[in-house]
Design goal:
Elements: H1 3-41, H2 56-66, E1 78-84, H3 87-105, H4 112-120, E2 127-133, H5 143-163, E3 167-171, H6 179-185, E4 192-200
Antiparallel strand pairs: 1-2, 2-4, 3-4
């Protein structure tokens, strides 16, 4: 066999390998995409979470995913604060301060039951990741786009935590943007506490979601 024949055979073998790899990859992608879509559809909010909570490395990995959210002009208007351990009690006190100030403004008085419940809100999970939106002035990026970007970042965060085996529930509520809570997180008056992502391990299995009728939710035009 000549040298040219050897080169031709080697070239053909390389091309055959490329085609084989390409076909396998295409099949894998098809299978994986179906599994991924089913997995996303299985996401449920789970309250009253227990240990274990994600490690620092797992949290950082989830936040890296959060940071891939659509972000017009790369403003990165979102920040994340991780609260766990005794710091949850400090957050509870900030929520209670906000509730008391709001009640005073409304001419109401908190019951002992409400006081206890409010203080204990952050204890419903071993770890809370708070997302805040720092609004920025930009002529091409209106505030609503920055809020939507923050929401997308939170959804990425939740899915990344789920991928690592943890359950979450996205909470906000009437107190999250009261002055006492904003002050606790160092959030400016024109900025927002966007989400409390309660994170941990659920003692219950996620229930199956009923099929969603998307017909009233979408319109196709051509």
């Amino acid at each position: 066999m000549t040298t040219t024949d050897n080169v031709d055979n080697e070239s053909q073998e390389i091309e055959d390998n490329k085609l084989s790899i390409k076909n396998v990859a295409a099949n894998d992608i098809s299978s994986t995409s179906d599994e991924l879509i089913g997995w996303i559809n299985s996401r449920r909010s789970m309250g009253n979470l227990d240990e274990p909570a994600p490690t620092r490395a797992q949290i950082e990995s989830a936040i890296e995913c959060a940071a891939t959210a659509p972000d017009h002009k790369k403003l990165r208007p979102w920040r994340f604060i991780v609260t766990q351990g005794e710091a949850r009690h400090e957050l509870g006190r900030a929520l209670l301060e906000a509730a008391q100030a709001k009640a005073l403004q409304d001419g109401e008085e908190l019951s002992e039951k409400t006081i206890t419940k409010t203080k204990n809100m952050p204890l419903r999970a071993p770890l809370i990741i708070t997302a805040v939106t720092q609004m920025q002035e930009h002529k091409k990026v209106p505030p609503f786009e920055q809020m939507l970007s923050a929401g997308a970042a939170v959804q990425n965060l939740i899915l990344a935590l789920k991928a690592q085996g943890f359950s979450t529930v996205w909470r906000t509520g009437l107190l999250c943007n009261e002055p006492a809570v904003k002050a606790y997180f160092g959030v400016g008056p024109d900025d927002y506490v966007t989400a409390f992502v309660y994170t941990g391990t659920s003692p219950k299995d996620e229930s199956k979601r009923k099929p969603i009728d998307i017909e009233p939710l979408v319109r196709f035009e051509s």
